[in-house]
Amino acid sequence: MAFVKACALSELEDDTPKRVELGGVPVSVVRTEGEVFAINDICSHANVSLSEGEVEDCMIECWLHGSSFDLRTGKPSGLPATRPVPVYPVKIEGDDVLVSVTQES
């Protein structure tokens, strides 16, 4: 699993998603509840950036239709989204937030 720097930890504000692109993959990086999460930035219901939504209770909400996704699992909490979005492993090294977007077979 290859980890690459997504951003600096000091750049992240609590409950405020930060959109980054890693190897052509749009990723939303979120610091909430004392942890850092990385989730695919595109809603599975509509081609909309999740990083423009709000974060609450370890969920990120799609601003367009209101579906929320669990930052730990990518699973939607309800309609209209029915499919999860990918989540990615995160490591913190010093002030660097490292994310792996490589898919294991």
TrEMBL record:
Annotated PANTHER family: 3-PHENYLPROPIONATE_CINNAMIC ACID DIOXYGENASE FERREDOXIN SUBUNIT, FERREDOXIN-RELATED
The keyword Phosphoprotein appears for this protein: no
GO molecular function, one term: 3-phenylpropionate dioxygenase activity
Highest taxon of the lineage: Bacteria
EC number(s) stated in the UniProt entry for this protein: 1.14.12.19
Protein name listed in UniProt: Bifunctional 3-phenylpropionate/cinnamic acid dioxygenase ferredoxin subunit
PROSITE patterns reported for this sequence: RIESKE
Lineage, uppermost ranks: Bacteria, Bacillati, Actinomycetota, Actinomycetes, Kitasatosporales
Keywords recorded for this protein, A-Z: 2Fe-2S, Dioxygenase, Iron, Iron-sulfur, Metal-binding, Oxidoreductase
NCBIfam families noted in UniProt: PRK09965.1
Naturally occurring in which organism (per UniProt): Streptomyces pulveraceus
Rieske domain segment(s): 4-99
